[in-house]
Amino acid sequence: MNRLSRRTLGLVATGLVALSLSAGAIAEDKTLYQRLGGKPALEAVVGELWAITSADERINHYFANTKPEAFAGQLVDFLCQAAGGPCQYEGKDMQAAHTGMSLTDADFAALAENVEMALDKFDVPAKEHGEVMAMLGSLKSAVVNH
């Protein structure tokens, strides 16, 4: 009986380890979009980003003729698609959208700071925070000096 209990306990422990590893793998299989909290979370962060950026005298003049809902809708769709979500971004590619604006490295850095503040307000975990910032950073060459 003691031998059976040890064997059963061993099987149960092995099963729990396997389930734990599977749960970890499932968590790793989630898209950035899912890990961020889906569209409602993106909408909240983008809404905060608009509030911060529209008050930021370094760059708010670039958005003077932009309607908040247009900004939010396109940015949410862009981020949603880029993060592996179900949205379809239908706006211009980043270079076309920013050509003629003559954005500088400082302008890009200001917006990046604003994105970080918006992410921080919602306590976005470090891993996801880093992934969002890396995604933003990857756009720099398409946005700056065009």
What would you say this structure looks like, in words?
This protein is mainly alpha-helical. The chain folds into 2 domains: 1-30; 32-143, Orthogonal Bundle (Globin-like). It is built from 8 helices and no strands. Helix 3 (38-54) packs across helix 4 (68-82) and helix 3 crosses helix 6. It is globular and about 40 Å long. The termini are far apart. The model is unreliable at 1-25 (pLDDT under 50).
List the helices and strands and how they pair.
Layout: H1 2-29, H2 32-36, H3 38-54, H4 68-82, H5 94-98, H6 105-121, H7 126-137, H8 140-143
Helix pairs in contact: 3-4, 3-6, 6-7
Give a brief rundown of this model.
It is built from eight helices and no strands.
Number of domains: 2
Question: Number of helical runs?
Answer: 8
What is the residue-averaged pLDDT?
Answer: 86
CATH-level-4 superfamily name of the largest domain? Globins
> What is the CATH architecture term of the largest domain?
Orthogonal Bundle
How far is the first residue's CA from the last residue's CA? 77 Å
Shape: globular
CATH topology of the largest domain: Globin-like
Gyration radius from CA atoms, angstroms: 22 Å
How would you classify the helix and strand content by structural class?
Answer: mainly alpha
Largest sheet: none
